[in-house]
């Protein structure tokens, strides 16, 4: 779709120190394309396709917005595991949400554009999967056992990214372990019983650390929430106030 000169002009903007997001907005070219061109036209900058965390000195991922979203997905329905000589990042997405599957794959490609991404079909869900020796570098929360049975803490460089891209983190967390539903109630008005429907967001997770990350981020964004203990030991965080639901709708929205 783009000739070589167009690619070089776009990469020249990146070379000026502008972020991939800024160049993408200016040119209309996706971040994934920009990053891929950067690697193909300047292979020496790939450092053997090493990740930003392996660079000297280490730096944050080049696409922090996509990383914040992918981090939210990983903390909810993802895992990093050893596979032969490499490592695998796997995020399980329900078949009912094809848009979520596409968004997950797009985020993986944006964070690690030099690595392939695959969809592995399983009963009722798709495991979006990517192989790289550097997934443990990008997700230092990986470890043996279930997430709710061990400490989950963000390291300083992750805190910087999630502090700058809070809504993307919230979107990833809601897309993994949350939902937007329509609640209803009835009221008597003028002697007649009327039914009212109103939307709300739920987020449910067993890890106290992940729930704390979610609620602290909501606090920073000015979103009101309440929490209740789920019968199976998880905490259920609800966003139901009209103004807060409007904020969530503007930045998160229902899964699709």
What does this structure look like?
There is one protein chain. The chain is an alpha+beta fold and 256 residues long. Among the domains are: 4-46; 175-251, Roll (Endonuclease I-creI). Helices cover 42% and strands 25% of the residues. It has a four-stranded antiparallel β-sheet with strand order 1-2-4-3. The chain has a four-stranded antiparallel β-sheet with strand order 5-6-8-7. Strand 7 (226-229) and strand 8 form a beta hairpin. Helix 4 runs parallel beside helix 8 and helix 8 crosses helix 9.
In terms of quaternary structure, the protein is single chain
Largest sheet: 4 strands, antiparallel
CATH homologous superfamily caption of the domain at 175-251: Homing endonucleases
Named CATH architecture of the domain at 175-251: Roll
N-end to C-end Cα span: 28 Å
Strand content: 15-25%
């Amino acid at each position: 779709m783009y000739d070589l000169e167009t690619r070089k002009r776009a990469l020249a903007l990146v070379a000026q120190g502008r972020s991939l997001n800024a160049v993408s907005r200016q040119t209309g070219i996706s971040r994934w394309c920009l990053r891929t061109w950067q690697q193909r036209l300047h292979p020496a900058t790939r450092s053997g396709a090493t990740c930003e965390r392996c660079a000297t000195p280490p730096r944050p991922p080049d696409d922090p917005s996509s990383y914040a979203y992918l981090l939210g997905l990983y903390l909810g329905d993802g895992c990093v595991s050893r596979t032969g000589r490499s490592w695998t990042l796997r995020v399980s997405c329900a078949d009912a949400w094809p848009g979520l599957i596409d968004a997950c794959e797009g985020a993986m490609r944006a964070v690690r554009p030099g690595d392939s991404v695959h969809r592995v079909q399983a009963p009722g869900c798709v495991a979006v999967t990517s192989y790289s020796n550097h997934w443990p570098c990008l997700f230092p929360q990986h470890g043996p056992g279930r997430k709710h049975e061990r400490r989950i803490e963000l390291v300083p460089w992750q805190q910087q990214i999630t502090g700058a891209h809070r809504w993307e983190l919230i979107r990833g967390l809601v897309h993994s372990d949350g939902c937007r539903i329509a609640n209803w109630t009835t009221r008597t008005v003028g002697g007649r019983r009327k039914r009212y429907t109103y939307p709300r967001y739920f987020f449910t997770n067993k890890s106290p650390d992940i729930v704390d990350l979610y609620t602290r981020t909501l606090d920073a964004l000015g979103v009101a929430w309440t929490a209740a203990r789920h019968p199976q030991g998880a905490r259920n965080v609800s966003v139901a106030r009209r103004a807060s639901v409007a904020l969530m709708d503007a930045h998160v929205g229902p899964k699709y």
